[in-house]
Amino acid sequence: MSGDAERDRPDTGASRADPPRGRGTRARRRALKIVAGVLVVAAVALAFALRSPSTVGHWASARGQADYLAAYGKAMADMPRPSRTLDVRTDFGVVRAYRYEGHPGRAEPLVLLPGRASGSPVWGGNLPHLLKVGDVYTIDLLGEPGRSVQEIPITSDADQAAWLDQVLARLPEKSFHVVGLSIGGWTATNLAVHRPRHVATLTLIDPVYTFSDIPVGTAIRAIPASVPWLPKSWRDAFNSYTAGGAPVKDVPVADMIESGMKNYTLHLPQPTRIPENALRGLKVPVLAILAGKSVMHDPATSRQVAQRALHGGTVRFYPHASHAINGEHPTEIATDLATFLNRN
């Protein structure tokens, strides 16, 4: 209303010190066109620099793949030894999964989905605690750096749900407690929206594109970090920024993520933020664990949307946690997850 009142107010005349209205408007429009032109040129230049003829995610070189796999193996050394290593065939490629034997009292195992460019080893600090909850599968997301191999283009949210549904269908159990971190949280929610048949419950750990969008400032910071030929320090700086300023030098998981960002080219569609009506329509129990200092979404907005949309869901808010919440609070997350599963 205040804007309408301002537009309807009679013109009382401009001060002599003010420039003529037409000239000022034209100048502002020229400035906006220049800014827009610069942004378009920058976007085209970035797209040209990162262009690739491939339509699937792939390694930039054999040397880059070897560098990543060495970092992956070093980070994997901090994990418990899996009881089984599986390569599961789907319509979109082969998906690597690891099975870990945990507490025998729970019928449905956990399925852990990692964040972007991280792979299964990102769960190293969580597994000792989560194995007390039940058996665990970890999965390397298809189309991301890791041991999964994408063969067919993934072009939509429906495709993202389809390959994961096929993985779960080919595992021996019938239903699973799906746990997703960051983009893995979006992947889990997207699965429950499109293909929920194997989902017993959802646990979303600081998910992106789920309850609110990625802030503009974070998106801008991510641009140079996504350019592979820029210095490693730029990617380290971005990873530290998302982890609340924590040092990432000589941290095996951080080295693995940095190598994936540098050496792997993603060809995945931009995730569509989960609509609130889709969240309201979820038929499975949901636990949302949100970081109060996350820079990958708006924590206050995410908390409000989650509390409003998840009927019968549980929202846990860790006010001092960063987006690296799984490494900062592994014990608390396992406790909250066990309580949630026991109640449901």
Detailed description of the structure:
With 344 residues, this protein is an alpha/beta fold. The chain contains 13 helices and 11 strands. Strands 2, 3, 4, 5, 6, 7, 8, 10 and 11 form a 9-stranded mixed sheet that branches. The chain has a two-stranded antiparallel sheet with strand order 1-9. The longest helix has 29 residues, at 21-49.
**What name does CATH use for the topology of the largest domain?**
Rossmann fold
**How large is the radius of gyration?**
23 Å
CATH architecture of the largest domain: 3-Layer(aba) Sandwich
In total, the number of strands is 11
What is the percentage of strand-forming residues?
A: 15-25%
Residue-averaged pLDDT, rounded? 85
CATH class of the largest domain: Alpha Beta
Helix content: 40-55%
Q: N- to C-terminal separation?
A: 47 Å
The gross shape turns out to be: globular
Largest sheet: 9 strands, mixed
Output the structural class. Answer: alpha/beta
CATH homologous superfamily grouping of the largest domain: Alpha/Beta hydrolase fold, catalytic domain
Low-pLDDT parts are 1-21, 28-51
Features:
single chain; 344 residues; alpha/beta; Rossmann fold; 2 domains; nine-stranded mixed sheet; two-stranded antiparallel ribbon; 13 helices; 43% helix
Topology at a glance:
Blueprint (H helix, E strand, L loop, with lengths): L1 H7 L12 H29 L8 E2 L2 H15 L7 E7 L2 E8 L9 E4 L13 H4 L5 E4 L9 E2 L6 H13 L6 E6 L1 H12 L4 E7 L10 H10 L6 H11 L9 H12 E2 L10 H5 L5 E6 L7 H11 L4 E5 L6 H4 L1 H14 L1
Parallel strand pairs: 4-5, 4-7, 7-8, 8-10, 10-11
Antiparallel strand pairs: 1-9, 2-3, 3-5, 3-6
Helix pairs in contact: 3-9, 5-6, 7-8, 8-9
